[in-house]
Structure formats: C-alpha cells, structure tokens
Write a structure and sequence with these properties.
It is a single chain. This protein is an alpha/beta fold and about 400 residues long. It contains 15 helices and 15 strands. It binds 4'-deoxy-4'-aminopyridoxal-5'-phosphate.
Length: about 400
C-alpha cells in the first residue's frame, strides 16, 4: 500500500465520524471581532482573555522593539539569543511570583507547549514518578511520554485518589502535574489540596496556568494569587500568547530548578530564542495586566461570565430535551456540552450563520459523547455581545428542538 492510499483511508475514517479538522483563514481582526471572507464575526473563541492583542500600545511596543532589536533573535538563548528584553521579562516574572514561590526565578520559552515539554522532560528522569491529572493539556501528556519517568494517571480533580497513589509510591522524586484551569472545561484544579499532598508526600507540584495567568487574582498573577498559595514546591508554567496578548511562555520556580532547566531542557537549549521585539512588547503587556486596564478587563470578565452562565442555564432549562449541559467552569472558559459530533458542528454552523464564531470541540480533544461549544469570553466583550450570543443560541435550540 502506498503512503498516500494509507493516509487517504485514515482521512476517510476521520471524515466518516464528523471529526475532520480544517483551517479557516481570518482576513483581519483581533478578539473579539474577526473578518472572514468579507464578513465580520463576533468571536467567542479566542484565548486573548483581556483583549490585549488589540491594544495599540502593544503594537507600538512591537514596532519599537523591532527598531531596536531587528527581527529574530538569531540563535538559541545560551549562544547569543538572550537579550536584555528577555532578561527583563524573566526578572519581572520572578518578582511577580516571589510571594508565591520563595527564591523564584523565571525562564522564557517560545510557546507554552515548549515550556511544558522542557519542565516535564528535564525533571522527569529515571528516578521520578509523574502523577498526571486525567484532563491535562496535550502538551503535558506528550511531555510525560517523552520523559524517562514512570507515569501514573489520576482521575480528574480526585485528591483522595491521588493521595492513595502517592502513599503507595516508592519513587525517589514525585511530580504532580496538572493544568490549573482545564482548557476544555474551564474548571479549576483543586490546587490547595494538591499542594497539601505535595507537602505531605515530599512531592513537587507542576502547575500549568495557561488559562489563569493575567485572568485570575486581583493583580492577574493567576491561579496562585487567586488561591493564595505559596510554597517552594510550586513549579509554575504560564503562557504569554493568551491573556498577555503576544506569544511565549515561562517557567517560574525555585532558582535551583530553573538553573537545572538551563542545563538539561533539550528543547530550550537546542531551539532559537523568541524574537527580542516580542519580549520588549511583553513588558508593555505586563504593565497593562498589572495596571488599571487589566483590573477593568478582569472586572468586566467576571460580569460577562455571570451574565453568560445565567443565560446558558436558563436556555438549558427552557430546552431540557436537547440534553445540553454546563461544566463547573469558574473562568472565562464557559463550555456548552452538546454531546454528538455532528450536532455540535451543526450548532457552530448555525451560530456562524448568525455572525458568531464559536468553535465546536470534538474527540479526541474531549471525551466521546461530550462534544461541546467552547465559549470563551474576552475582557472587551460588552453586555450586548453576550446577549447576541444568547439570542442566537436560543434560536438554534428552538430549531433543533423542532427538527427532533
Ligand atoms: N497548556 C494549556 C493548558 C493550553 O491550553 C495550551 C494552549 N492551548 C498550552 C499549554 C500551550 O500553550 P501555547 O499555545 O503557548 O503553546
């Protein structure tokens, strides 16, 4: 069989299950509005939670950074790619997390996927057991597979189950690895309980706060601030392509851990550093997150979240036969569980017809039978924007019910 025949058979099987993915080209726009084929769509799908990608100050800082530093960094960080802008970003993050992680130091990466890969593969050696939460992001799952450690999975948010597993472990080093905010469900990991287990069993807690950084906590520092956590056992991963509105990621941890990553994280050592202009602009993004703009956007997010959640609950109650449901989401990620793959794609198409972009998420990203609309809010969504989504969903629900 030729490779192409082999792949075409696989592609046909994917299509038959309504699971075929394809790229959509946006012509212009930043969250929450995008133009596709000449039509402006109101988006409920971006992870640009504070709407910072659209801030003129960020575009200006990028331009200023490019004038000062040029285009790319030209080399990996340990060769010549580490600029003063990279260092200023890492220093700011270390200061931000010092109240939560004693002796904190930070190290930058080009993406969150890379940061997760680095921390889990570098720390997960043959002496280590990784305790991995069931709903962890794909990058953490892939990282654990690449590590030389033993992997033990624990059930979603199951602190008691994890306790039993930790108590039975004989590994020299134990790493608990979890998302802080689950990307497809919007709920929070039970971090205080996990940290208490880490203290009790001499384990370390790797927290991927991709969806909490910038969003949660009074100053937007994320889940650790939101929950008031502090421990040298915390190893924090944050992404800078979501609420920070740019690109990149970081690990903040005890200085010894960061020093070791610098020696051992192969994907850090053997990969070109991010463009210094992006790092320069991140300093502007941090000032916005830290200042009145960030505070106002976070307050608006909380208000829109309540409006959306109340509206979705009322919608579900009006149409119980559709079997739609909410998750325990406590963040700007507010999914609507629909169930079937074809149903969710039909719903997403109906919303798009009404001028709204809301992605249908299907297996294997989520469990079979739990296909969903992943609705995400942006700090610049207005009350009228959320109403528009709720009205369009009501129309779609009524027509699905008539069709059933
Ligand atoms: N962790 C989580 C929980 C994520 O949702 C994502 C991105 N979707 C990542 C890590 C990867 O971050 P990045 O997009 O910066 O690679």
């Amino acid at each position: 069989m030729s490779l192409l025949e082999h792949l075409n058979a696989k592609l046909d099987a994917i299509s038959a299950q309504s699971l075929k993915r394809s790229l959509r080209r946006a012509d212009t726009g930043t969250a929450p509005r995008q133009t596709i084929n000449g039509r402006e769509l109101l988006m409920f799908c971006s992870n640009d939670y504070l709407g910072l990608a659209a801030e003129p100050a960020i575009a200006e800082a990028l331009a200023e950074g490019a004038r000062r530093w040029g285009g790319g960094s030209g080399a990996s960080p340990l060769v010549s790619g580490h600029s003063a802008a990279h260092e200023a970003v890492a220093d700011t993050l270390a200061a931000w997390f010092a109240p939560h992680i004693p002796q904190a130091r930070a190290i930058g990466f080009c993406t969150g996927y890379m940061a997760n890969l680095a921390v889990v593969t570098a720390l997960g050696d043959e002496h280590t057991e990784i305790f991995s939460e069931q709903l962890n992001h794909a990058s953490l799952i892939d990282a654990a597979r690449l590590a030389r450690a033993r992997i033990t999975r624990y059930a979603h948010a199951d602190v008691t189950g994890l306790r039993t597993l930790l108590a039975a472990s004989t590994a020299k080093i134990k790493l608990i690895v979890t998302d802080a905010v689950f990307s497809m469900d919007g709920d929070l990991a039970p971090l205080p309980g996990l940290l208490a287990l880490a203290e009790e069993f001499d384990a370390w807690l790797i927290v991927d706060d991709a969806h909490g950084f910038g969003v949660l906590g009074e100053k937007g520092r994320g889940s650790l601030e939101h929950l008031g956590l502090s421990s040298e056992r915390l190893i924090l991963v944050g992404t800078l392509g979501k609420a920070a509105g740019l690109a990149g990621a970081f690990v903040a941890a005890h200085a010894t851990i960061v020093d070791y990553l610098l020696q051992a994280a192969r994907n850090f050592i053997f990969s070109t550093a991010s463009p210094p202009a992006v790092e320069h602009a991140l300093l502007t993004s941090f000032a916005l997150i830290d200042g009145p703009v960030g505070a106002a956007r976070r307050a608006n997010l909380v208000a829109r979240q309540a409006q959306l959640r109340n509206g979705l609950m009322a919608l579900i109650n009006r149409h119980p036969h559709l079997g739609w449901a909410l998750t325990d989401a406590a963040t700007p990620i507010q999914p609507l569980i629909v169930g079937g793959n074809a149903e969710v794609m039909a719903l997403a198409a109906a919303l798009e017809h009404a001028g709204l972009r809301v992605p249908g998420i299907r297996p294997p990203t989520v469990a079979a039978g739990t296909a969903r609309l992943r609705i995400t809010l942006c700090g610049t969504h207005t009350e009228a924007d959320v109403d528009a989504l709720l009205i369009a969903l009501e129309r779609a629900a009524a027509s699905q019910e008539r069709a059933a």
